[in-house]
Amino acid sequence: MEKGKETTNEEERPVEVDEGELTNIELSASTVSRGLIDDFANDNLLGKIVRSEEEAYTLYNEYAYEKGFSIRKAKSRYYEGTRLIRQKEYVCSKEGFKEDPTPSETPSYNRLDVRTGCKAMIRFTVKDDEWKVTHFIAEHNHELASTEERHLLRSARNFRRPKPRLLNSVETLTLTTENTGFVQRDQNPASEQNLVFIEGGDAQSLCQWFKKKKNGDIMFFHDVQLDQEGRVTNFFWCDGRSRIDYGYFGDVVVFDTTYRINKYNLICAPFFGINHHRAKVMFGCAFLLDETSTSFIWLFKSFLESMGNKAPRTIVTYQDDAALIQAVEEVFPDTSHIICPWHIVKKASSHLAGLYSNPAFAQLFRKCVQQCNMESEFEETWQRMVEEYDCKNHSWLKTIYRYRQKWSTAFSSNSFSCGVISSQRNECVDIFGGISSSKITCLTRFAIEVDELVARWRDSELKSNFRCKQGAPPLVIKKSSICHQAAQIYTHKIFELFEQEYLEGVGALRCTELSSSGTLCTYRMVGDMDDQKEHIVQFDSSALNISCSCKKFECMGILCSHCLSCLHMKNVNAIPHQYILKRWTKSARDRAPSHDLMDTNRRETEVEYHTEMMRWAYDMITRSQKSPITRVLLRDSFRQIDQELKRVEADLELNVANNAQASGNSGKRKKNASNESLKSRKINDRAVDNSVQANAHANIPFDIVNLNQGSIDLSTAPFYPFSPQYLQHAHFAAQEAEQFQRNN
């Protein structure tokens, strides 16, 4: 073949996360030798040889999958005048930068900017039908996908990679995108499985399911309550992942008792929270036979035990039942209890009947529930409502008024709630919407469906984590440094909320300075449009401390539009670090579980320490089990820790032995010293007796200290008989003599 001048052709295929068609070159492990795959751990493909373009793509794509990045085709160089490839390049999908749209183009705000200018690439040079790697760059300038996220990489999606982890059993009935390698739209509906349950009734079947879960998950926890006749009444369970998640996001727990199932009319009561994507995360679930304080107290204690006795900062409930309120106060005395305002508003339409149909009354009632920022404002609005509509003696209004601190935002604005109390029910509470239940649904079937639902939640979180790692969300204001900072730190969902607050703050608020004293300034914020409600913002420029009367940061954890407007006006171009809540960031899980729930002012118990370390180890084991490399890494780390622990334990045992020996030697020395002291005192006593007889009538004080120190001539020392000094000396000598006899 005649070789001439080469030509270049760009074959770039832009990669958008979760969009587009599957790559037309399928991976096949058989096309790449086992030796090449083994070299992936060495980060060196330079000099490797394959036989075709397909094998070249497969080699780099397999390497990319093992490392955790996606690839795309780049430059192709041809021999002049032919379509024969001379050189072929493949690059990381994050190579280059996204071009800004021209003014005439309509920008698309729903696509991630995944390009980071990464230089990682590979170049094959073709000669005599051999494709040899002649240039290779392994370094990346971005975070790589973790083991459980690699199936989401676009270039790694396929239908032929074997998946040995798929099991056909009750415990692993759910096929998640993680263990299949497909994204959700790639999957075909699974065939219906016929589950076989142990005979003997629902309770026995459910307990057997608990045992099976426990066999496969050492941190699986379950508890069962019996009545006085030994019959099962209540169930509670949570898996190991739920206990791990509680360590990260257990500051706010939502407890819902509004869902009933099957022929027993059992209450299905889940404990769940909100993760860093503002999505639901399950902490545990219960089946309750009734809603008595006894059942609630048992359930809360079981939940607390499963979580290592770490109580949440806030618990949100969806019932205003007295038994539930009593149980929360007894089991969680230091936890803020919030009754969901949405629940109170919903009940008003049924309890207040004709009154609530009046728009003016309904507006006042909703203001009391959700729109009052101060207690005085609530009391004033409530009194106005009950007086104008003559409902002071209404039984339901009197009942909920007693618990007003738990459901009105005027009292709960200082309690952190992740924004749950301001959300609609269908956003945060209707968690069993995807589960069908009938009067013939058995408990085990429903528990398995809950398990499958939670698996879908976790798969959704995995995808959200992956998207956050792939690129930053598009910015409405591209030149804003504070928005760039927020986009890099926060998850995409939280950034959307932050950006909305920022845009409202800089574009829809009027600011008036009320006072200024040194570095402390006070401002009044009022909306430009119909919202004429005032909010007071205080800002200390020395420490960049800021607060607002709306209390959004206290209850939600992100700065409100009023605070952001003030920071913008003061030319503060970054979010002060004290107002970046770790739980809302992309790195929310990059810490030891339960670290933020620990009370540093007290010493943890052995049970708490055991639970804490079990969670941490379980989390690492779960993350490492999907890759041989991470398994070896964790085993080696545990082996090193074990050796270090043994060394420290040996040192501690040696110290204990040395201390015991030193204590024994000290005891012997004390015995010898006591013996010598006793002999000395006997000699002294005889000398004193002689002195007493010789000086019986001498009225001269005697210095016992000088006597013991030997500075007085005992033969001539004057001594006053039965003086306090003499009696003290005699009593002390008698005590030492008795002690010496006991020791010997």
Automatic annotation (TrEMBL):
InterPro entries: FAR1_DNA_bnd_dom, MULE_transposase_dom, Znf_PMZ, Znf_SWIM. Residues 1-16 have a biased composition (Basic and acidic residues). SMART domains: ZnF_PMZ (SM00575). GO terms for molecular function: zinc ion binding. Residues 523-571 form the SWIM-type domain. PROSITE patterns: ZF_SWIM (PS50966). Pfam families: FAR1 (PF03101), MULE (PF10551). Keywords: Metal-binding, Zinc, Zinc-finger. Residues 1-20, 659-686 are annotated as: Disordered. It comes from the Eukaryota. PANTHER family: OS01G0519700 PROTEIN, PROTEIN FAR1-RELATED SEQUENCE 5-LIKE. This is SWIM-type domain-containing protein. It comes from Punica granatum.
